[in-house]
């Protein structure tokens, strides 16, 4: 019942090294992993806490902004209601009787009625009646006796009257020794002939107006400030523990106390502002709009970040505790893993030092020094799929299906290095892959040697590595990617490609079928170019019954074998803007040095060029049909092969601003843009030299024409053919150039 401190084994320990031991290297490795783990957990926990607090700040800001909208809407409605109330009082019976028959008795009765209104309506500070000349006649309070009506509201030059109500900007007045923000509303009292009897003015408290709204529709724990467009405070002076940068007295200016915040508020109608220690929410409010005058103000609320942190304290503690638990569990997992690795290594050492190695779970063979199998265990026989009796006295080379060169290499390694490691493919029906280790040992009591062969079936691992290699090739790019064989059949594709082509997991399809018949017809040219240059790039336009709707920038990159043949193609697709008009008849728009176009495609390309580009261009016609060599129909296939070889060679050296096209069998056309007559002639000479170096220059004649204004491609070709005919007639040269100029009837050609 005693505890085992070493690895359990059926055999006793031969030496102490068979047990597990914590070396200095293992301890340093464990400590470094634990330190990295703690650092990562600390960083992640801190990030989660900060993100949580930030999220809570944003939630508070969204809630306060909604409350500000409600307060703004209700305040605007309240001001509209106050206008209606002012108009109702102005049309009251007592006031009408007084204005018709002024008397002290009616004046006293009117004042008593108005005092009753001010006592029952909290935001109504007082009422006053002014004469048609704008002089105070009587009022319920003397706090506003010094107020003068604006001259623009008096006399015949006014813009308002009748049922209109004028709302003044906000101002301050002392009431009972306390500064009170207020605004007044003025109503015109007119005679039937629209002459003025007088003016009724009602004085309203801003603070009490907001207090009637705020308790029901705004969080009482959050301050609510009212500022005018100049930043002066009109309400919200009673903030509990206000910020140092916030105005706390009526009439104080936010522009002076917090200029950075005020700049943001002044430039926007609403929004949020996050400082280092607080979050602010603001909203511009328009209380009334009358002719040229707008009464606009700002509602502002804020909260300290430390208040948010206080609300978030429980979550912070919970996250920290969770982070500690995760760190503890991960630390235990790392320690257990190190312990497991040590135990496993100890077990391997025990197996190597044990006398019962041959009867272990390893597949083992004992082979004499000449390569004949002497003994084999059951595990090895099962791996080789042969009975034990059939394996004895057989050649190891034949059993493992080794050729002479590799077997001799193994023997040399055993002779010089005493061991050999490698993978062996049995090339049987299942094609098993064996990880093999051969060690050459000397017999204890003789001078003879034997081979101890151990191997392990790694077929599944090898297949997994092959699959991983294919996936690695496929997913090198973050865009839509597909991996195909040389014929274009899809082997693997990523999620972006599956969605782009709407495959829904069905990848048993060719890439040429997805991209249209035109690409299918050019596939041989494309694969040939990939073999030479490594990749092919083009733009693929949408077509009828296609699976995509946008122009695709397509890049095919070849994975070549050691012999230079294409083994795999890595195809990437990116949405892009087409370089030519969408009405182009061709849906494959290659780079100008990418593919050989047909003549109609070259014509579309030529039409889309600007007149300035055409004026600096030349047209080269190449005849590649040597007379007397391909003279009958039986040699047409040879001519086609020769033309294909020349096309591929031209594509390799073709500049980016040139375009090659097939005119007919035996003739090629090259459009040279951004060039002149001299550079075109030099390019033709260089091209001939290059073809002669490749043994392709025999019988080639070249005609070159310069562009004539407003001429079509057919006229361009006709001028180039004139030069080609002259080149064929010449004995000492095979390049001729035509410089064309217009005449009165037709264009004439000057041959050089």
Name the beta content range.
25-35%
Distance between the termini: 109 Å
Shape summary: flat
Number of strands: 29
Instruction: Indicate the structural class.
Output: alpha+beta
Average of pLDDT: 81
Unreliable runs = 1-18, 743-750
Q: What is the name of the CATH topology of the largest domain?
A: Alpha-Beta Plaits
Transmembrane segments: 27-49, 317-336
Domain GGDEF: 615-741
GO biological process, one term: phosphorelay signal transduction system
Protein name: PAS domain-containing protein
Description:
α1 crosses α4 (206-217), α1 (24-90) packs antiparallel against α8 (313-353) and α17 crosses α20 (636-653). 40% of the residues lie in helices and 26% in strands. It has a 7-stranded mixed sheet with strand order 23-25-26-24-27-28-29. Strands 1, 2, 3, 4, 5 and 6 form a 6-stranded antiparallel sheet that branches. The model is unreliable at 1-18 and 743-750 (pLDDT under 50). It is flat, with a radius of gyration of 48 Å. It is of the alpha+beta class. It folds into 5 domains: 57-73 and 223-304, Beta-Lactamase (2-Layer Sandwich), CATH 3.30.450; 80-151 and 158-209, Beta-Lactamase (2-Layer Sandwich); 361-464, Beta-Lactamase, CATH 3.30.450.20; 477-576, 2-Layer Sandwich (Beta-Lactamase), CATH 3.30.450; 597-738, Reverse transcriptase/Diguanylate cyclase domain (Alpha-Beta Plaits), CATH 3.30.70. This is PAS domain-containing protein. The chain crosses the membrane at residues 27-49, 317-336. It holds the Pfam family PAS_9. It comes from Shewanella psychromarinicola. One of its GO terms (biological process) is phosphorelay signal transduction system.
